[in-house]
Every structure is written in C-alpha cells, then in structure tokens.
Amino acid sequence: MRHREFWALVDEVFGRVYGRTLAGDQVIGALENRTAAQAIEDGVEPRTVWHALCDALDVPQERRWGADAQRPAPPRG
C-alpha cells in the first residue's frame, strides 16, 4: 500500500474531514502510542498503520476497503 492509497482509504471509509481528524488525533497503542499521521511520518508501512487504525476503531472487515469490491485488501505486515 502506498501513502496515497492509505489517505484515499481514510477519506473514503471515514470521510475526508473526520478521517483526517482521526488520523491526526487518535493515539493508537499498536503504533507505539502514536497517531496514524505520526506513524506515517515516522516511516511506518502504510498498510500496518491502516490495519492498526481500523482495529482501534473496530471497523468491520467488509468496510475496510471502501466501496470498490474489486480492491484487494492489503495483507497484514
């Protein structure tokens, strides 16, 4: 997963404004008590950050990949 794909999913799954707020404010233990945005800036693999964000917010599997049913889910790192 690339950075642009991560941010596109954030926008699609959570909505642009709310998603960007979550990514910047929600501290996630699985990311060593960083926000998703901090983890991305620190070089953590975007798919790892995506899974941690979705896990922390209890996003069901069927919603994690947006509206594109053909989009393959990135494997867990």
Helix vs. strand class: mainly alpha
Low-confidence stretches: none
Spatial strand sequence of the major β-sheet: 1-2
Please state roughly what percent of the residues sit in beta strands, choosing from under 5%, 5-15%, 15-25%, 25-35%, 35-45% or over 45%. 5-15%
- Tally of domains: 1
Tally the helices: what do you get? 4
Roughly what is the average pLDDT, rounded to an integer? 90
Largest sheet: 2 strands, antiparallel
Helix and strand run: HHEEHH
Radius of gyration, CA atoms, in whole angstroms:
11 Å
InterPro entries: DUF3046
Protein name: DUF3046 domain-containing protein
Organism: Pengzhenrongella sicca
Pfam families: DUF3046
Summarize the structure.
This is DUF3046 domain-containing protein. This protein is mainly alpha-helical.
Explain what you see.
A two-stranded antiparallel ribbon has the order 1-2. Helix 1 packs across helix 2 (16-25) and helix 1 (3-14) packs parallel to helix 4 (46-56). The relative contact order is 0.19. The chain starts with a helix and ends in a 21-residue tail after the last helix. Strand 1 (27-28) and strand 2 form a beta hairpin. The chain has 77 residues and is mainly α. The chain has one domain (3-61). The chain has helices at 3-14, 16-25, 36-41, 46-56; strands at 27-28, 34-35. Helix content is 51%, strand content 5%. InterPro entries: DUF3046. This is DUF3046 domain-containing protein. Pfam families: DUF3046.
